[in-house]
Amino acid sequence: MLPNIAIIGRPNVGKSTLFNRLVGKKLALVDDRPGVTRDRREGAANLLGLEFNAIDTAGYEDEDAKSLPGRMRKQTEMAVAGAELAIFVIDGRAGLTPLDEEIARWLRSAKTPVILLVNKAEGNAAQSGILESYALGFGDPIPFSAEHGDGMADLFQAIQPYVEGFKVAAADEPTDERAPLKMAIVGRPNAGKSTLINKMLGEDRLITGPEAGITRDSITVDWSWHDNALTEEDLLDGIEPDRRVRLIDTAGMRKRAKVNDKLEKLSVADAKRSIDFAEVVVLLLDATKGLEAQDLRIADQTIQEGRCLVIAINKWDVAEGPSKLFNGIRAALDDGLAQVRDVPLITISAFTGKGIDQLLKAAFNSRRVWSQRVSTGKLNRWFEDAITDNPPPAPGGKRIKLRYITQAKTRPPSFVIFGTRVDDLPESYRRYLINGIRRELGFGGVPVRLIIRAPKNPYHDKE
Questions:
Q1: For GTP 2, which residues are the binding ones (predicted)?
Q2: What pLDDT band is residue 173 in, cutting at 50, 70 and 90?
């Protein structure tokens, strides 16, 4: 979950230009004419590392509620009511207008916190507008230029407390195990992806056949899996035996050098986007062909995107030398995916249905691990023991001090360690910490992010 930050103001003050800059792409139409934006538009924003959901709103106008501007205003009011923060944008060159003052009165009566941004503040023409803006009662304004990007650091400092405060508040919210599992089935052509989904659904929902490359678009199908192995604790937690799954069938992904057809290129790109959308990615192998380099490339991409990975060996009912094949694939995975150990490896038959329940259990369990948060006490006890058992090195005779650790986010689990001289910390010690997190804190089999930072204050703990 990300905090919502709504961008509001009267028409043509630069709200959509600011929105486009925050989301890093031109999602919202921009024109000199006022009133271009009508509906709310949302986008994932990243401001110097701060992640939040930006909401572009229609220009706020004082019109009859039944008119189009009035209905647009209602949408803006709803956006502000559902936001953790509102950025009130005014035009520095035009100065304060009666409509700006009307919007300010409404915002003061709302419960949503507000920061004031004076746009078009480049040059001397906006100085009087900046001074006038103090009269709105929202504290120090932020001089800004949405067109040129001036003032980004000041906007970062103003937004940071609300974004980080939201993360702290949301940290203790449990992941809803009842939410549909978003599961993408990926692999090389003709591995049996569509056949597997058809077997799960109990119907020929997707076209299958001996020809490779039948599936072109990524197809999403909602389905309910009946879990016969739920424990009493699961039932008490509200998990229903019928567990919802959103299945995503994808086009076969061949080695890039072999893809020449434009349509196949588009299909592969669509499959890669499906990995971004999924929570769990099932990489389907063909038991008659074993593990190939392209399979490892797909697996590595999944891990790089921070998604859970489950590997299923299909056509197990016709595999030759199954024990040797399984051990060989396991060893190759441990060697080729050293950054994530213990990825679940399941044997299945999409034709007979054998192993499908085990596959889904592994997928739901991986999502649970991927979504879990470690308590602060447990995390710091592990960290202190890890540092005591194996202290950081002292390159050049100067000690590297690692002060404390925090879990920044889940999905994927991400941790931040703060310390001094961290630029000198060797990669081997970083791997030691990641392996400890996996082994001691229960994150085996899912991607783990570890960020090591020095304090922002350059005089902090200076020796």
A1: 187-194, 249-253, 314-317
A2: very low
